[in-house]
Amino acid sequence: MSSLEQTGRIDSFDTDIVDESSTDVKADLGDLDDFGDDVAFPRLDDEISPRQEDEDRDRLYTDELDTETLVTGGFDSDYDPVDRFFEVQGWQRRLTLIQRRLSSRTRTTSFGDGTNSDNSVGIPEEDGQPHEFSEILSRASDTLKVRSKQMAKAVDRTASHLKERTNKVVKDVDQMLKESRSEVEKIVEQASGTLRKRGEKLKARRQRLGSNLKQGREQMRQNYKRQMEDMRSQLDKVMVRSRSAKFRQMRHMICFCCAMMDLIITAYWLGAFPHTHHYYHTFKFSLLVGMRAVYYRCQGMHYYLYDLCYYINIMLLVYIWVFPTSDWLFMGCHGFSGVLLISVIVFRNSLVPHSLDRVTSLCIHISPAVQMWAIRWYCKDSSRFILPERLWSPLPSMCLYAFWCIGYYANQFIINRKRIERKKYETLYSHLAYGMGMMKALPKPLQTPIRSRIVFIVGHFGMFAVGLPFLYFPFALHTAAVCLAAFWAIKNGATFYITYFWKVYNDQITAFERQIVSAQADAAAQEEKHSSATNGATEEDVTAG
Known about the structure:
The protein is mostly helical. The chain is about 75% helix and about 0% strand. It folds into two domains: about 5-110 and about 120-170, no CATH class; about 280-505, no CATH class.
């Protein structure tokens, strides 16, 4: 390549640079799109090795070197202008380093003698004028400096343009945010208004529902009161009829006949079919306790139904009909036989056949003990009941008693205590403490409500513990205990009847004696009147004669 051609190319390159003047950023950066992809721009902090300097120098002074490509290498039009600027600075730095090295080598070499001294530095000679390459490099360096300044201005303009666009975008975004905020506020206001209206509707519905519930509750109360009043009036009528002389006499006669028949049936059934006596026991208990539950509830005495005797009867029915093969439950029920027989003596149960209440009390105490006696001694070979052969333990009875005791104490003295005291319901504790006078028999330190309740529970447990040895009684002793309890009930019944009839007989004798005395007095008075009248008539006749 000749120097004139190279000079012409540089001049044309300068002319193109001078002619470029555009305000648009893309037009200012458009000429940089001619940089080739093969031009590698170093970073500012890269170090140039001697081998790389020699390669750059050879490329710079070969015929294939294109100065225009060196200066305005092919950048892509989409390339970032900031990256272009820094890459151009890197290339300018490399050219400056190459130029300095060439200048330092040129000073040590003589170009005026026409010798080929430039071969030591590897600079080719063309037409004997090697200094043209240094001029070309210097011009290219100047051109790059000018281009760098233009790039800096273009970057500044681009930055300002970007800043303007950013400000515009920020303003647009702020405007959009304000509009969206206003729309959201409107939506929130509409939603809050809707919710407020719905809340008011719900409040109105709640108020209407509350008023309807109150009215319904009040109406239910009135209906309940009306029904209770009707039931009480009917019950009063029934009670008045039942308390009448004829109805009472008929009731006592029916109860007396049923009680006598019960004794006959029980004796026959135990003697003939003891292994099936549980059918009759279940029927009798269900009938008597069902009638008592209704009567006690009407009289306010239903808390008696929580006593131990009813609990034992229920557990016996559970054993008979639910778990007839349970050894544990059999020992538990059989261990209660002693306390039931002792209760006949303690609570003065009596055989009074005409009184349904006394017959029921005797039945719930002695009938379970008789049933366990029949199972214990006459159902060993039964297919229904399976009895333990050797091991007999009071532990099942104690477990069942502890379960009942905890429930009874919690119900009577903790949960329903205020209700019982307010409505004055009768319980076993009140009957023993105040009805039988045991509260006064206690020492004064134990006559407080809490201590007296504890004494009641301890005494009840003591009575239960005394009856536990009945579990180990042989047949003769067991039979004697049952007979003794039955004899004691008959003795109490006899005492009641003798006392009652003696009192009635005494009242009748006294009334008869009073009637005789009054009759004698009336007769004496009439005789005196008759004698006085007769004497008066005789005196009148004598006077007239």
